[in-house]
Amino acid sequence: MMQWEKLLSSGRFDPLSSKKEESATIRTEFERDYDRIIFSGPFRNLQDKTQVFPLPEHHFVHTRLTHSLEVSSVGRSLGKSVGEYLLEKYPVLSEKGIHATDIGAIVAAAALTHDIGNPPFGHAGEEAISDFFRHHPYGYVWQSHISTQEWADLCNFEGNAQGFRMLVSKKNGLQLSYATLAAFTKYPRPSLIFERDKERRSQKKFGFFSDQKEEFNHLAEALGIGKANTDCWLRHPLAFLVEAADDICYSIIDLEDGCTLGLVSIDQTISLLGKILAEKFQPEKLEKYSFEPQKLAVLRAMAIGKLVEESVQAFIEKEEEILNGQFDQSLTDIIPSAQALAEISNLSVVKIYRSKPVLEKEAAGFQVLEGLLEVFSQALNHKYYQTDLFSGKDKSILRLLPDDFPLEGWGEQANPYPLLRALIDYISGMTDKFALSLYRKVKGISLPGT
């Protein structure tokens, strides 16, 4: 059974170093996590990564960055409320200097990073990267050079695993606390496992690539996180709160954005949010607000508040089952408002996620990311493996890669998996606009400066 005093360790992730950082005098370790993330390049890039909708000219809709900030805010509320309960139940936590605000800060920091590994163009970008290796000649050409596990990584690009990779990367220099990293990891397993337990939410996707398995094992050992089976670990309990914060925000905020853009009527939106509020819903009070955005803002705030209360209560009720690994579901699937959230989700699929602007964005994402992967993968293959095909065009393409890209040491005798991971790091880390601009240039659609 996991122990809270170990799960809330303020130690920092750096398995190759025993150096201890100086203790903070003003900020706690977990507040430092939050600040490091806010000031990091990968987090800033989220401001130009699509959440759901392409950015319109006349309406504000959410980007990955604004979505992440909101999820973090909800996560802090969830964590702090749960923290107050835990400190009352486990006095040893107070004796060790842990406060409810520390638990709120862990969830807030982990929630801030929950989308940090997402590529340009959202989930369509994930599928585009996966499909390139599965189906494109210059994608599956690499299969014979790497292991089965590594090939599974490439054919199943996963934003959660890419996020873990970015957070532990020495290049990004975040060196976050063990607790924040573990709370971030909603799916603590590799891409290829013998058999997935479909009853366990934590095994629905995967949370790290094969070359990060030892790093995650180090993290799990440091926090006393056990395994569900040979290949899969249990979740850190606070990962359930990070997931709940995300579930709450994207359900409510995507609906609000859909209403703002006219894809869902204001009456339907009010009705759906009212079902969450149940007996607290008083539609006559909305009449004092003259503008639709005001009505939406009031209902959104009330609905999120209700969902936070219900999620905290669900966590408290399942806390011991979570610690011993018996509970493994989404909290928002077991709260009283679960049916109302399901209704919102079903409507969002039909009216929002399959709307013309979203589908057009996804189609563009497939074209752009496949095109970028094609030109760079082809050039790398020609330089190191099919060397007789290496051309002047390939040389020009490779010069476009970042200065720190690992272009030495590859060839028939070398496993190119790290090379391909570096290429995916580069492309998945792009903003939507940069990816589109570079695609146009390498495909000759536009010239520099035009």
From TrEMBL:
Check the record and name the SUPFAM superfamilies matching this protein: HD-domain/PDEase-like
Entry keyword set = Hydrolase
Provide a Gene Ontology MF annotation, just one.
dGTPase activity
For the HD domain, which residue ranges apply? 64-251
Question: Which SMART domains does its entry note?
Answer: HDc (SM00471)
**Which Gene Ontology BP annotations are present?**
dGTP catabolic process
Highest taxon, organism lineage: Bacteria
Q: Which Pfam families does its entry note?
A: HD (PF01966), HD_assoc (PF13286)
NCBIfam families the UniProt entry points to: dGTP_triPase, PRK01096.1
Name of this chain's protein: dGTPase
Q: Which organism is it from?
A: Cecembia rubra
